[in-house]
Design goal:
Blueprint: E1 7-13, H1 17-28, E2 33-36, E3 52-53, H2 65-81, E4 86-94, H3 102-114, E5 125-128, E6 141-150, H4 152-165, E7 169-171, E8 174-182, E9 185-192, E10 198-208, H5 214-222, E11 230-241, E12 249-253, E13 259-265, E14 269-273, E15 277-278, H6 290-301, E16 315-324, E17 338-345, E18 348-356, H7 362-373, H8 398-408, H9 414-424, H10 428-431, H11 451-460, H12 466-473, H13 482-494, H14 496-502
Parallel strand pairs: 1-2, 1-10, 2-7, 4-12, 10-18
Antiparallel strand pairs: 3-6, 4-6, 5-6, 8-9, 9-10, 11-14, 11-15, 11-16, 12-13, 13-14, 17-18
Helix pairs in contact: 1-4, 1-7
Length: about 500
């Protein structure tokens, strides 16, 4: 397909969860869509979350009732539509009377239970901690409630796959450097981030879903004034060996009124976060600070019997949340809600920009964004994403799916089978098509990461370097050595599609 001569209905700039969600929604409603991402899908904020699909219990303290209600409703939809990468998770909230009184927590949990209809998750309740609790002995009471865990980066990938399945073009490693209105369309200049090759596309409308760069894109590429200000708030996490063997996550209160989560992560680890720190600077340069590390360690050690130190940290990550600037005094009070800003020229060439948002409400945001553009496309189709599984999620019971995969691929080791189902759902049948033995999966690079899976991710999920594969499409980076990582990169560099992509350097298309 010659994208240069074709006029797209919609060009989405940004391959995070909002951009991928909007591309999927629009493509499924019949629009001709192209998505451009300057790096890899989910390479910024969308892979740096606390990996939760949640209503946001703490948002109730800031009177964000509408946001919590919407998030709780979306929680049920996402649990139904992506059961391979989203699963129920129970949270325990240890009670510290000097931080928040029990009556206040009970009111919050009552609202959490009843603001939206619960379908799959149990109601909250009070609990007592016994002597075998992982918590320090002076904490004897608390509360339990339910939310859900998500593989955030794979949620983005699956939305991009959904968009592609409905005809969208997904262009990763492709930066929008300029967009001008010309002859009732946008003429958009793109730069290949790998080769520097310049190309041009045309589109009737644009969505600016650039996340932390949403305001900057207005001045750098559109030569327009941003309609809203954003506030960059850094959230950092640490990963340590599993603190306790129980399946529950913990929500920990702190004296500064902030909370952090300690959640089970990839079987053998605990994920601890997040912080809320005002951030100034280039979003791609964000990293955890010593103060944040100390804060997360101290907060965790105040609650758990098992103490952790810097020596226990396996890895860290930090992300910049582009929140709508509502002039809140401190970072933790800034709204997590979103605003959609639409600007056009004589009812033509609209540009819609996304400010704020959270991963739990991405689907609703995407639906609202496409609804806002619908007057420009009279033949647009109806909404559809609430009742349609994401790719790989078209099954009703994960136990039955597991039994079916075990029967069809009896040679697949149990741990690998569990991981592949958790990542791919029914896509596993495409991954293992015509494979009849573990040897047929090719070379194992370590941590059950085989040549077959790496090639599949390059050929079908836009992976082009080792970070794409071991952190965003899988989490095998937690287990791999530096030499294994280097060997994987060597393999990727020799893959024909990667060689072809990188061989276009110094060419120019018009």
């Amino acid at each position: 397909m010659n994208a240069i001569n074709e006029v797209f209905d919609l060009a989405v700039i940004g391959g995070g969860i909002n951009g991928a969600g909007i591309a999927a929604d629009a493509a499924g409603r019949g629009l001709n869509v192209v998505l451009c991402e300057q790096n890899d899908l989910a390479s910024a904020t969308s892979s740096k979350s606390s990996k939760l699909i949640h209503g946001g219990l703490r948002y109730l303290e800031h009177y964000e009732f509408k946001l919590v209600r919407q998030a709780l409703a979306e929680r049920e939809i996402l649990l139904k539509n992506a059961p391979h990468i989203i699963k129920p998770l129970q949270f325990r909230l240890p009670h510290q009377p000097h931080l928040r009184p029990a009556w206040l927590i009970r009111i919050g949990l009552f609202l959490y239970n009843n603001l939206a209809r619960r379908v799959s998750l149990p109601a909250s309740k009070g609990i007592k901690f016994s002597h075998d609790s992982p918590l320090v002995s002076n904490i004897t009471k608390g509360f339990e409630y339910s939310d859900a865990w998500v593989d955030d980066a794979r949620l983005v990938i699956l939305n991009a796959l959904s968009a592609q399945d409905n005809g969208a073009i997904i262009k990763t490693q492709t930066q929008c450097i300029k967009a001008i209105r010309e002859d009732k369309v946008w003429v958009i200049t793109l730069k290949d981030s790998l080769t520097g090759v310049i190309s041009f596309i045309r589109a009737r409308s644009i969505v600016n879903a650039a996340g932390p760069w949403v305001a900057q894109l207005f001045s750098d590429a559109f030569s327009l004034k941003s309609p809203q200000n954003i506030r960059l708030v850094k959230g950092s996490h640490i990963v340590v060996p599993r603190i306790h063997a129980q399946p529950e996550a913990y929500m920990l209160q702190n004296a500064d009124q902030r909370i952090i989560f300690v959640t089970p992560f990839e079987d053998d680890f605990s994920l601890i976060g997040t912080t809320d720190v005002e951030y100034k600077g280039e979003p791609s340069d964000v990293e955890i600070s010593d103060d944040e590390i100390d804060y997360l360690l101290d907060s965790t050690n105040a609650y758990f019997k098992k103490k952790i130190s810097r020596a226990d940290i396996i890895t860290t990550y930090s992300g910049v949340r582009p929140l709508l600037d509502d002039e809140s005094v401190n970072a933790q009070a800034v709204t997590r809600d979103y605003t959609l800003e639409l600007e056009d020229l004589a009812d033509k060439t609209p540009i819609l920009s996304v400010f704020g948002g959270k991963i739990t409400t991405y689907r609703k945001l995407a639906e609202a964004a496409v609804d806002k553009l619908s007057p420009y496309f009279p033949n647009i189709g109806p909404t559809w994403t609430a009742d349609t599984p994401l790719p790989g999620g078209n099954f009703d019971n994960i136990d039955l799916l597991t039994q079916g995969i075990k029967k069809e691929f009896p040679w697949l080791p149990s741990a690998l089978r569990t991981r592949l189902i958790r990542s791919y759902g029914t896509i596993i049948f495409a991954l293992l098509n015509n494979i009849d033995s573990i040897e047929a999966m090719g070379f194992c690079f370590g941590a059950d990461l085989y040549e077959l899976e790496i090639n599949f991710l390059i050929e079908h999920e836009w992976a082009i370097n080792v970070e794409d594969i071991i952190w965003r499409r899988t989490k095998r980076g937690l287990y791999l050595s530096m030499s294994q990582v280097a060997f994987i990169q060597q393999h990727i560099d020799k893959h024909p599609s990667v060689v072809e992509r990188k061989s276009l350097q110094n060419k120019k298309t018009i």
